[in-house]
Design goal:
Oligomer: homodimer
Structural class of chain A: alpha/beta
Organism (chains A, B): Desulfosporosinus orientis (strain ATCC 19365 / DSM 765 / NCIMB 8382 / VKM B-1628 / Singapore I)
Strand content of chain A: 15-25%
Strand order of the largest sheet of chain A: 11-10-9-12-14-13
Largest interface: A-B, 41 and 41 residues
Number of strands of chain A: 26
Protein name (chains A, B): Putative metal-binding protein
GO molecular function, one term (chains A, B): iron-sulfur cluster binding
Pfam family, one (chains A, B): Raco_middle
Helix content of chain A: 25-40%
Shape of chain A: globular
InterPro entries (chains A, B): 2Fe-2S_ferredoxin-like_sf, 2Fe-2S_ferredoxin-type, Beta-grasp_dom_sf, Corrinoid_activation_enz, Raco-like_middle, Raco-like_middle_sf, RACo_C
């Protein structure tokens, strides 16, 4: 194992040099995203990195053509062309000033124009002869007709120098002294399972720190419907519990980053949130019940801009704001709008499918700028839940697997530890291998041992529990067994996702072959290799060569909302123009679903 | 003792028929205020009451002329003319529909136009084919471009019928079902010592209930400066403690009234508050420190309209509002603006002095519509504090006293109980009698027993403690002693008030004789009879015949702010036009104060 380090980004990780993968793929797999519009197909010449030290493959002819002489002298290389073979030290090149690297997601270009800004003012001091109230002094100094109550209530006497904090054209706070240099925001993606947050310097766009946590709402149910049911059963109290669970997680994460970076939380003025529609209702404390019940009309989808204290976000400035990105419907949330925007779907002239794979599978088809979306309930199988030996992607989780007739199952385990279970990518890999080697047939049924000839290399891995057949993927008897039930769980997930895909493509009068690109989004999706997605028939083989990964585009959308009012407007316009197809109302959808439940590939 | 009852107002109280006082005076002393613009001088013919039962003096010639034949047949009488002589049952006549009786205060005419109003709407229900979010349905039904966050966050699914609650043109809430008939507000006067609140039906202006309580901030200090010092020493925590003390009192009072009248607190939508400037800062949680420190510039004086939840007022609708009446300066608060407005000072064409006597004495001189105010620190002596045998106006408190050379001190005790101490009015009465009978001289010094001849009727009441002289007002030796220190406390209070009065009149180029009326405001002031105020030289004898009482005009101002947007506007205009004279900056004020410290009258 060798190490790749990115000293400027404070990133360091081990990689497998024997896999002979391109540096681009290695970086993307580790969620270090750099611009690569061609998706690694060596055609765009944009994925520039700077070689600082260590071994690299020699300059290719393509690189010599794409790079200037100056770039070559400076050690610039194209990440899709180079193949590291030892310890390596590199720097990721920002394409321009406004194009920083964000942990876990590719950031497109944007116009830097944050909603929050500051101005330093001086006020005159009252005297016995002129007892003008402070409110009037500030109104005069700030040229305002009215001092907002939220500002007034927090005024305290100072030495005359104050810093006014604005949200667009609205004064939101007054701070004693000159605090001009300290201006931070937080970009947040709230997933049903995971929450990630980045602390951003709003003056520069720099990501100061990032943090991830398990969504504390998991105590109230693993999926959104269970949590909505909890609210139904516990009414307002339940709503408050779910809200304070997630808000508590956010407060904790913000505090952790502030302590680590020695930043005063009072200088954080905005939190931008992208999330699915249920999470957005819950973090705001809005009634989620309509989302869980036909006809699935949510309370709101439009963007929201509200005081952070209103929802209990207190680990920041007392007058901080929350900006919530817009959604489309109950099952196409702000996370998908953010993703579609980060993927520039609204600007694409070709045909692109954007897909976010998780407990719900959401997808957007962009057909020459026309956007249609749909959503399907994949269930948590692909994330390692409801699988008999499923587990989270932690040390001991099998993340990939290969079956060789001679040597049996070869496992790749996170942390090179003793295998404990299967994480999401491991589960897909198992199903892929079981299909490839005919352990299961197109209907998803496990092969019966009596159908196999003696000496068949698969026989030793089939275990029986009465009439129940199971596949053992470990060498230890009775350990790491794949059941028929596990296979059904994956089959259901894949039927749901693929049938949505088919329904969308059908409705647009397209075929899979017409698609120019399939963009896989999400932190989770980034861990699902193309060969597993296609090998398990979640994505049809027709798109195998067209898959690219965009990372956590939900958080990136939140980042853009923090940094650019223009991005906010464009995301709102995108949300309004994005059509939603309710699959349960789509003619012939049931037949599509049944068709898609078959494993077609080998 | 006979009983007067007002069945419609649910008021019943005993009175002394032998005092042969006019019914008007008896009612006013009990804080049942009826319109009497002439102040009981039998000239306006407005103080109409309806005689329902019991003995009354016969119809006077004046009454025959003032009343119509129909009124006489209905039993209408003028309260200033009739003299009750036994048990009596009456009704107070509202001059017109918009002219209700408010506990403890006279209510002038006003235009009924509350800020809060309701509208019932129906929304269409979403379907699977049309999953329009609820936010959009409400925007359409209410013809709004934006649904305020405060409204949206509280939306829950209903059967399609909702009641929209507005604050002027702003939607503030949506209630499930039709709640049109339930619309309440609360008018509050926060005094440093006492808090009073009236629950008002906003549809009719009717006072549904009223409640009084001790300001729970008393635990942090009796006067405003001690409480400000507490905040100085305990910083933000102290500010929060003082805020939650007073807000807690308000929540308790509102709950008590709601339980008693079986009204759902969720149907209370507005609380209008009048208070002095320090109390207003403290109830809103705004920094009061600048008020306590030269140059005494407050944070704010302008009217405020804010969410009730922001200050912790929770015993009412979650989206209720608080309206705070405007003030003039740190020491001329919204209570005085309210009083000046209720007394119609801005409309008076003559010369009127308005005075509110309490721990602080605030006064407004209206000189043909020009209003000037000043404030003086009277100290708590007139409210029975810092007096060796002082107490609150409760059972056992001496409220009046008379000295007869033959029979000694005759005490009037609240509740006809054994005398325990002196309340404010009792203290003034004592000083009045001591002055009248030369127990003390013009400089406030107690007479020495050696200066008196043997057999002087005063001698038995002078007690000596070493060289210290004291006046015993009870027959029991050593009980109820008035010390030289007690006299000095009252003397300081009287100097402060009278000197303010003199400074104001001087500054306007007037003399006392020029004044057409002196209006005494405040719950406490209503208990101070003219003969005590003049007899202790707090008010000069030149105004003795011109004194009238207006009751708790601070709460009445809050009531008008609840019931009439026009009254709000007029009060704000009045506050802006009211000049403030800082006594400490006034030439010659020190000399005036020294002059006023002398007791001039006998």
């Amino acid at each position: 194992m060798y190490i790749i380090s990115l000293p400027r980004q404070r990133i360091k990780f081990p990689y497998d040099a024997e896999a002979k993968e391109s540096l681009l793929n290695i970086l993307v797999a580790r969620q270090v995203f750099i611009e690569s519009p061609c998706g690694g197909r060596k055609s765009c010449g944009k994925c520039k990195i700077k070689h600082l030290g260590g071994e690299l493959s020699p300059l290719s002819v393509d690189e010599e053509q794409s790079l200037t002489q100056k770039e070559i002298e400076e050690g610039i290389r194209l990440a899709c062309h180079v193949c590291p073979a030892g310890d390596l030290e590199i720097d990721v090149i920002d394409q321009e000033e406004n194009h920083p690297v964000l942990t876990g997601g590719y950031v497109p270009e944007y116009k830097r124009h944050p909603a929050i800004w500051k101005k330093v003012i001086e006020i005159s001091k009252p005297t016995l002869a002129d007892q003008t109230p402070y409110e009037e002094l500030f109104k005069k100094a700030l040229d305002l007709e009215r001092l907002p109550w939220e500002v007034l209530r927090r005024i305290t006497m100072g030495n005359g120098t104050y810093t006014a904090v604005y949200n667009q054209d609205q004064l939101i706070g007054l701070e004693k002294g000159d605090t001009f240099e300290s201006l931070y925001g937080v970009a947040v993606d709230i997933g049903t399972t995971t929450v990630v947050a980045s602390l951003i310097d709003l003056r520069t766009g720099e990501e100061v720190d990032s943090e991830a946590a398990i969504n504390a709402q998991k105590n109230f149910g693993q999926d959104v419907l269970t949590r909505i049911t909890y609210v139904l059963e516990h009414e307002e109290q339940g709503r408050e519990q779910l809200q304070s669970a997630i808000v508590g997680s956010l407060n904790d994460m913000i505090r952790t980053m502030c302590v680590r970076r020695q930043i005063d939380p009072a200088h954080i003025y905005e939190v931008a949130i992208a999330a699915n529609c249920t999470m957005m209702h819950m973090v705001l404390g809005v009634d989620p019940l309509p989302i869980g019940k036909s006809p699935y009309a949510p309370i709101f989808v439009a963007e929201k801009e509200i005081p952070a204290r209103d929802i209990g976000l207190t680990a920041l400035s007392a007058f901080a704001r929350v900006y919530c990105l817009p959604a489309v419907s109950s099952y196409i949330g702000a996370d998908i709008v953010a993703g579609a925007y980060v993927a520039r779907l609204h600007e694409r002239k070709d045909k692109v499918l954007f897909i976010d794979i998780g407990t719900n599978g959401e997808m957007v088809l962009a057909n020459r700028g026309e956007l249609v979306s749909c959503s399907c309930a994949a269930g948590p199988a692909l994330e390692g839940m409801n699988i008999s030996c499923g587990m989270r992607a932690a040390d001991g989780a099998i993340e990939d697997i290969h079956f060789h007739p001679e040597t049996g199952f070869a496992l790749e385990v996170i942390g090179q530890k003793r295998p404990l279970g299967l994480c999401g990518s491991g589960i897909l890999a198992v199903i892929r291998e079981l299909l490839k080697h005919d352990f299961i047939n197109a209907r998803g049924n496990l092969v019966k041992p009596e159908q196999l000839e003696a000496g068949d290399p698969r026989l030793p891995y089939i275990e029986l529990d009465g009439k129940k057949r199971m596949i053992r993927i470990s060498e230890e008897p009775g350990k790491l067994l794949i059941t028929q039930g596990d296979i059904r769980q994956v089959q259901l997930a894949k039927s749901a996702i693929l049938s949505g895909f088919v329904a969308l493509v059908n409705a647009s009068g397209l075929s899979f072959a017409d698609l120019d690109e399939v963009i896989v989004a999400g932190q989770f999706g980034a861990h699902l290799p193309v060969d597993s997605l296609v090998g398990t028939d979640i994505l049809p083989s027709a798109v195998q060569e067209k898959v690219s990964y965009i990372g956590n585009s939900s958080k990136t959308g939140a980042y853009l909302a923090l940094m650019s009012l223009e991005a906010r407007q464009e995301m709102s316009a995108l949300a309004r123009s994005l059509d939603y197809m309710e699959l349960s109302m789509t003619d012939g959808y049931e037949r599509i679903f049944v068709d898609c439940s078959q494993f077609k590939v080998k």
